[in-house]
Amino acid sequence: MGISLWLVPTPKQTALLKRVMSIKRSAPHSPSSFADFHPHITLATTPTASGLREAVPLDQPAIPAKFRSVDVGQKYFMSVYTRVFDTDALAALRAHLRVRLGESAVPPIPHVSLYYIDDADADEREKVREVRDACWSARMASR
Asked: Which Gene3D superfamilies is this protein grouped with (predicted)?
């Protein structure tokens, strides 16, 4: 595991994300499914905090997060997530962190996880995908 550096959404974005994250299965099979956590974009993960502190540029300005889509994946930490636009500022910071910390320290895509779902509850990922697709279809039909 290690320690992670996060980019945290604005308070308004966080409130909206937490509303979505509060909708979850009441009795999952695994106690690690649907864990409570603060919405965040993991920028990098390293074994020690000192490595992270040293990797961040001293003059690094805040980077606003812009959400792109809701996706469903097959990995625990990317079970259900909101993909984030990789803006120039975010892409530059992620590239800088890859150079300083190594390719594997930076997640493959910028995202905010909404749910962590254990493989014991993998069917829940499919349910979320179905709801997402139904919402998208309804939205497109109303245009």
From this structure: Cyclic phosphodiesterase
